Structures are given as C-alpha cells and as structure tokens.
TrEMBL record:
Pfam families for this protein: Peptidase_M28
Keyword field: Signal
Cross-referenced PANTHER family: METALLOPEPTIDASE M28 FAMILY MEMBER (PTHR12147), PEPTIDASE M28 DOMAIN-CONTAINING PROTEIN (PTHR12147:SF26)
Signal sequence segment: 1-28
Residue span(s) of domain Peptidase M28: 190-382
Cited InterPro entries: M28_fam, Peptidase_M28
UniProt name for this protein: Peptidase M28 domain-containing protein
Top-level division of the source organism's lineage: Bacteria
Record carries keyword Iron: no
Length: 389
C-alpha cells in the first residue's frame, strides 16, 4: 500500500508540474502575442493610429480581424460602432527653420495641435526667457519636454514649441511652412465584441482600452504610442484569447475605443448609444498605460468602490503579484469615466516606473519593458473570477 501511495503521489506531482508548466508556457505565449501586437499597432503602417494616412481606420480593421480570429461575437450586428467628430490634422508640410537651422519634427519641435496652416518668414522678438513673438498670430515657446495632443477646434494662433535641450541658441528668426487641415466630420469606430456566458449571459464583465493615439505631425513624423495605448489593447486581446478558450459563467465584453485622445469621445459615444444595457455591466476594467510596472500600479476609482478595491488587494497579496497597488479617487482621465457617471462600477488600471515617454515620438515598442504584463494578466483573471461568485 505504501508503494502504491508513493506512485499515486508521484503521479500527482507529475500532473501538477505538467499543469504548472502548461500554465506558465501559456502565459509566455500570450507575452509573445502581446509583443507582436504592440509591434504591429506601433508600426509605420498604422501611422500613430490617428487622423492622417488612414491610421485609425487601419487599426480598427486590424482589431476587427483579431476579434474574429479569437472568436468574439459582435455586439449587435457589427464589431464596429461608427461615430463622427471634428479634429484638426497635419497631413503635409511641416517645416521649421530657426536662425537658418532646420529642425526635426517631434524631436526638436512640435506645433500646437490647434494651429492653422502658415507659411511665413519673420524675425523673433523676445518676450521673456521662454517666449518669443514673430507675428501677432505666431509665437515660439522653449520647453524642457515636447508633449503633443489632439485638438477638435481650430485656432487663429500658431504656437511652436522647441526643445531647448536640443536648441541652445537664442531664437532670432523663423522660417515656417506648416499645413493643417480641419476635418469637421472625421469618422472613427469603437470596436466591440463579447463572449457569451455559460450560466448568466445577461451579466457582463467588461474590459476596455483605447486604441487611438496622436497620429502624425506632417508627412514624415508619427507618434507610435506603445505604452499609450498599444500595451493596453494588446493586453485586452490576450485576455480575450484566454476567455475564448476558458468560457465563463458571465459574459465577458471587450471594447477598444477610438478618440480617447480627443477627449474620451469614443467611450462617451458608447455610453450615450450603448450596444449592451449598461445596467447589465457588473464591473468594468479599463486598461491604459500598462506597459511598465517597476513601481507598481494605480487604480482610479479605488475610493469609489472600496469593497472591490479591498478584494483586488487581497488577491494581489495572496498571489504575490504587483509590488504595490496605489489607490486613487474619481478622475476623468480615461475611458472608464463616463461609465462611472452612468452608474457602472469601474476601475482604471495604469502602471508606473520604467520609461517616461508620454505623448511624444519616443513611446516606442523597443523601449517598453512590459514588466508586469504576466502579473497584471493573472490579477485581472483572478479578480473577474471572484466577481462572478
């Protein structure tokens, strides 16, 4: 009997080892998929997933294809939820010369996102140590860091920000030729899919991430947006793959929002025109800026839903995952916000540490550490499992 027991025990150990190996190997495969997806979304072909060269539309098509491959069902009759909004774009000329020296877009200078087209040569008048005026409608600002964004309005003023670390001279003259194009009805699409629950299909756990970024500034410079937010989208897709292979009692929904960078417009449109009943969403996890994690992570709405946050912390401590989870209160800083305003319980996760690139041309996949991808993946899976009890 003792020998048999030892054989059974050995068999159990072998089975357990095999299970753990397959689990770890599966996560490693997901890591490979995540990296491949980030590389794809940040590639030149998608041109910053923005407003010129069809970047956002190409990303939307790619995500729809991934949803189909994974086996997600479309919400209602289509993965895409189309909407329109105004946006200022920079499709062509992007020339700046200061003191006769040509500057590189994105690295040496950026143009303010509301700026109109302009083609001028002018002298620069010093206003103070960081501000210089050329014309009544043209100014130059010296900055320590260049951070770009998206504008839905067109200004009469053109502002140019110059990286003062790269340009040591006092600006005296400017030669500027910038082409902007204001589009009053730019078309974008949220990408929406779900997996039907096996026991409670009318109860939904929702995972969201915005797929848009800043696009391009001129015809030669684009903003890759690896951490913001290719990492979030790739993590969402890897979770979708997991849930497609592991059906759950609740339905699991997945939404990749457009136009987050333009003012949370995609998520706002979805909330105002929901493809699922908002009352059926039991909890929402929004992923944005999740490509690091050396210094832990932050949870927005932690103080709004203290019981859920306590559960998240409990799981994290039990499984020894993220080094530190920082609580934060309500904030309108990502796509969870309008859901919360409509009474949908939601957390927004973002990680800290690692690269400091943000809304600039240096947010590239090769510098993104993905430090806590595996742990974040496990945390979300475990949290959702406990929420379904």
């Amino acid at each position: 009997m003792q020998i048999v027991a030892m054989q059974v025990s050995s068999a159990k150990r072998t089975l357990l080892f095999t299970f753990l190996f397959l689990s770890v190997n599966g996560l490693a495969q997901d890591s490979t998929y995540v990296q491949k997806t980030i590389n794809m979304l940040t590639s030149k072909a998608f041109w910053g997933r923005g407003y010129t060269k069809g970047g956002m539309a190409k990303a939307a098509d790619f995500l729809s294809q991934e949803y189909f491959k994974i086996g997600l069902l479309p919400m209602n009759d289509s993965y895409k939820q189309d909407f329109k909004f105004p946006v200022n774009t920079f499709p062509g000329k992007m020339l700046i010369e200061i003191n006769g020296k040509k500057l590189t877009p994105g690295k040496d200078f950026i143009v303010n996102n509301e700026s109109p087209s302009i083609n001028k040569k002018a002298d620069l008048k010093k206003i103070d140590s960081t501000r210089f005026q050329a014309l009544p409608n043209l100014e130059v600002l010296l900055k320590d860091k260049l951070t770009w964004s998206v504008a839905s309005e067109l200004s009469t003023q053109t502002s140019i920000q110059i990286n003062k670390k790269n340009f040591k001279e006092i600006p005296k003259t400017i030669n500027i030729n910038i082409e902007s194009k204001f589009i009053s009805d730019f078309k974008a699409s949220n990408i929406c899919g779900f997996l039907k629950g096996t026991k409670y299909p009318d109860s939904i756990l929702l995972i969201t991430a915005h797929y848009d970024h800043l696009g391009g500034m001129g015809s030669e410079t684009y903003f890759p947006g690896a951490n913001d937010n290719a990492a979030g989208v790739a993590t969402l897709l890897s979770l979708a793959k997991y849930y497609a292979k592991n059906p759950q009692p609740y339905s699991i929904g997945f939404i990749c929002f457009a136009a987050e960078e333009a003012g949370l417009l995609g998520s706002r449109y979805f909330v105002e025109n929901p493809k699922v009943e908002l009352s059926k969403i039991k909890f929402l996890i929004n992923l944005d800026l999740v490509g690091t994690g050396e210094s832990g992570m932050t949870v927005v709405n932690a103080s709004v839903y203290p019981k859920a946050f306590a559960l998240l912390n409990e799981i994290n401590v039990e499984q020894k995952l993220i080094s530190k989870i920082n609580p934060r209160g309500k904030a309108a800083n990502s796509d969870h916000y309008f859901f919360t305003e409509k009474g949908v319980p939601a957390f927004f996760f973002y990680t800290q540490g690692g690269i400091t690139a943000y809304h600039d041309v240096f947010d590239k996949p090769e510098t993104l550490p993905l430090t806590e991808y595996n742990d974040l993946f496990k945390l979300i899976i475990s949290f959702n499992k406990r929420m379904m009890k």
